[in-house]
Every structure is written in structure tokens, then in C-alpha cells.
Design brief:
Growth Hormone, Chain: A; globular
Length: about 425
């Protein structure tokens, strides 16, 4: 019996696929949105508990060990994203996603009972492996479940969960940490993941494109062979620069604005406005991408992001203009990164799509570490303003240059304008 037939027959026997079909197309979007929201939780939770751990010295933490713990958590996320692709391409999106959510959730709950700095840091790293694997797997599933004409919309809509999760976690920290301690944040995040598991099992279908694909003889290294090598490099550079911007701005925007002469309160408000712009941008970018094409849209998005970031280096006296400038920056910067993921889903076949998305996300996570580090070095040197914004603008320009080498469609040779 051919490999494709074996795969389809096996998949049709799975009890969790049929109920999902009866529930309609909204459920996969909602469930993947919830999984991505867990990534938003992880973005904020360590930053939310650091002030408490630093002030109390609980578990023996120092500022240096807190930096190590937060960095190794991000390293775990990057490794998990890079390694999950071949697993997802071989075992399926559904099974991989459920397993990774379970892994992340259990280890996140365990973090609350870590007896020492070493165990806490180890749990954060291991939880990061599972969480990092969730995002590219969820995006691969959404890319394959969505109609081709709405691929960008599906991807960007799901990614709004990332920013909503981040904002809700920040608000939750304000009411949870003081009365119940920092441990409660990890318990809540882990339990939220565990509560998602039965919903995923009962209502998440497997990708039909994956079920049709013959992956028995596909090697993950295909993303680095032939015409895909140049495509992959271009997309990796764009993903790296995109997450450098996302994490760099989320980490240092209040400080940069403070260096520019704005108040601390204004800097914090601008961070919220930045993420509000991110949600708006995600809702708009996907629709435009579906109508105008992935490549033209992502090029415009990174180009406008570069211009906005450069303009933020100019001190503005009018408060409303500052808010508007940061809102527009958020609209273009954050959704540009997600459009890269949609572009990856468009250019690679189902047999290696999970691997391609995983590597793009994993290499992007390196940018998530580099971005705050570079900006932190500029802060230490006393030149964060305006040079921080110039560095961010330069990163967006590099993303544009990298994407110019990538074809607009799978059938075109690399470097053809789209």
C-alpha cells in the first residue's frame, strides 16, 4: 500500500479528527490562538517576576543569575523551534502540538516549586524547548488548514494571541504577585496550558495537506538544498531581524524614550500603545497580504517599519503625535515578522513546511536574544538615544534586502522580483 494511503487511512481512524470536522473551521483557529497566547505569557512572565526575585533574593537569585535564567529560557525556545520541524513533518502537526503543550505546561507548573536557582533555570530552559516548538507547529497547521486565498489572514489572526497573551499576563501580574507570590504566575500559566490539552485532543484536526503528503523519504536537509538554500537564507535573515525588533522594542522602549526626555510613565504607556498597534497591524496585514501577495506586503511592511523607527529618533513635543508615531510603528514592526512566517508557509511544500517554519522561528529567536543585548549595550554606553532607533531601523532595512532575494512564488527562481 502506498505511503500516502497508509497515512490517510491511519489518520481517518483517529477519534479526535472527526469531532473537529463537525465543529467547523473556527475551532482550529481558536485553539491555535490559545497555544500562541501561551507564547505571549512566556514573553512577559519572567520580566514580571524578576523585580520580586531581585528584591527578595528568593532561592538565592541575584541580578546576574536572573539574567542567566531569562536568557537560557529564550535559548530553550530557540532550540525547540529549530528542532521540532522534522518531528512535525514526520508525526503530524496535531500530535506534535499536543505533546509540546503538555511538556511546556508541566514544566512551567514545576517551576513554581523549584528549590534553587539551578533547578529554576533548568526548568525554564526545558519548558522553553516545548514552548518554542509550539509556535512553528501551530503556524504550520494554520497555514495548511486555511484556504490558500486566506493564508496570510489566518496566520496573522492567530498571532494576535501572542500580544493578547502578553498584555493579559502583564495585567495579571499586577494583581497576583503581591498577594500570592511569584510562584502563582507559573502555576497559572502552566494550568492554563493543561486546561487547553483536552480541547486540543477533542477539537483539533490534523492538516489535510500533511495527510496527503508522502513524507516517508523526505529529509529535513531539503530546506538547505538546491533552490531552497537561497530562499531559506533570505527568510532566516528576515526572521532574525524581525524578532530582534520585537524583543528589542518590548524590552527597551521605555528606557529609550526616557533617554529621549520623556517621563517613565510616558515610556510605559508607549509600550502598551506599541503592542496595541501590533494587534491592529496583525488584523490588517494578513488581509492585505492575501490580496496583494506575500512578498510585496512584507517588503512594504519592513520598509515602513524602518522609516517609523528612524523617525522615533526625533524628539516630538506633542504628546498625541508621539502616541500616534509609536502606534504606527507597532502596526508595522510586529506584523512584519508574522508576514515572514506566512511567506515561509507559502513557499515550501507540506513535506518540509514544518521544518522550514521551525528553522525560521528558531533562527528568529536568536534575534530575540541579540536585540535586547545590543540595545542594552547601547544603554550602558550612554548612546541608546538616538542610536537605538538607528540600529532598529537598520535591522528593518536588512530584512528588506534579504527578502528581495526571495521569490514571490514557489515556481519562480530566487531573486525574481515579486
Amino acid at each position: 500500500m502506498p505511503a500516502t494511503t497508509r497515512r490517510t487511512t491511519s489518520a481517518s481512524a483517529r477519534p479526535a479528527t472527526a469531532p473537529a470536522d463537525r465543529l467547523g473551521p473556527t475551532w482550529p483557529v481558536l485553539l491555535c490562538w490559545l497555544v500562541v497566547a501561551l507564547d505571549g505569557f512566556d514573553l512577559v512572565v519572567i520580566g514580571a517576576v524578576i523585580p520580586t526575585l531581585s528584591a527578595t533574593g528568593d532561592l538565592g537569585f541575584t541580578d546576574a543569575s536572573l539574567t542567566t535564567a531569562s536568557t537560557l529560557g529564550l535559548v530553550g525556545v530557540g532550540i525547540g523551534a529549530a528542532l521540532v520541524g522534522p518531528v512535525s513533518d514526520r508525526l503530524g502537526r496535531r500530535r506534535t502540538l499536543i505533546s509540546c503543550v503538555a511538556w511546556f505546561s508541566v514544566l512551567t507548573v514545576a517551576t513554581a516549586w523549584a528549590p534553587s536557582v539551578g533547578v529554576f533555570t533548568t526548568f525554564r530552559f526545558l519548558a522553553g524547548l516545548g514552548l518554542g516548538a509550539c509556535l512553528p507547529t501551530a503556524l504550520a497547521l494554520m497555514s495548511e488548514l486555511a484556504p490558500a486565498a486566506r493564508n496570510g489572514t489566518a496566520m496573522t489572526r492567530v498571532m494576535t494571541g501572542y500580544h493578547v497573551g502578553a498584555v493579559l499576563t502583564a495585567l495579571l501580574a499586577l494583581v497576583v504577585i503581591d498577594p500570592w507570590g511569584w510562584q502563582a504566575m507559573f502555576v497559572i500559566g502552566g494550568v492554563a496550558g493543561l486546561l487547553t490539552l483536552p480541547l486540543l485532543y477533542l477539537a483539533l484536526p490534523e492538516s489535510a495537506a500533511f495527510l496527503r503528503a508522502d513524507t516517508e523519504h523526505v529529509q529535513p536537509t531539503q530546506v538547505l538544498q538546491g533552490r531552497y538554500l537561497r530562499v531559506s537564507i533570505g527568510l532566516w535573515v528576515a526572521s532574525f531581524m524581525g524578532l530582534l525588533l520585537v524583543y528589542g522594542l518590548n524590552t527597551w522602549l521605555p528606557k529609550l524614550m526616557g533617554e529621549a526626555g520623556y517621563s517613565i510613565e510616558a515610556g510605559t504607556t508607549l509600550l502598551l500603545v506599541l503592542n496595541l498597534g501590533a494587534v491592529i497591524g496583525l488584523l490588517v496585514a494578513g488581509r492585505i497580504s492575501d490580496r496583494r501577495g506575500n512578498k510585496p506586503t512584507v517588503l512594504v511592511w519592513f520598509g515602513v517599519a524602518a522609516a517609523c523607527l528612524a523617525l522615533l529618533s526625533i524628539r516630538i513635543e506633542n504628546e498625541l503625535l508621539v502616541l500616534a508615531a509609536v502606534l504606527v510603528t507597532g502596526i508595522f514592526v510586529f506584523s512584519a515578522q508574522v508576514l515572514v512566517y506566512a511567506f515561509v508557509g507559502h513557499l515550501y511544500p507540506p513535506e518540509i513546511r514544518g521544518t522550514a517554519l521551525g528553522l525560521a522561528a528558531g533562527i528568529g529567536r536568536i534575534g530575540a536574544i541579540v536585540g535586547p543585548s545590543i540595545t542594552g549595550a547601547l544603554v550602558t554606553a550612554g548612546v541608546a538615544y538616538p542610536w537605538g532607533f538607528y540600529v532598529f531601523a537598520g535591522a528593518a532595512v536588512l530584512a528588506v534586502l534579504a527578502l528581495l532575494t526571495v521569490p514571490a512564488h514557489p515556481s519562480e527562481p530566487a531573486g525574481v522580483p515579486g
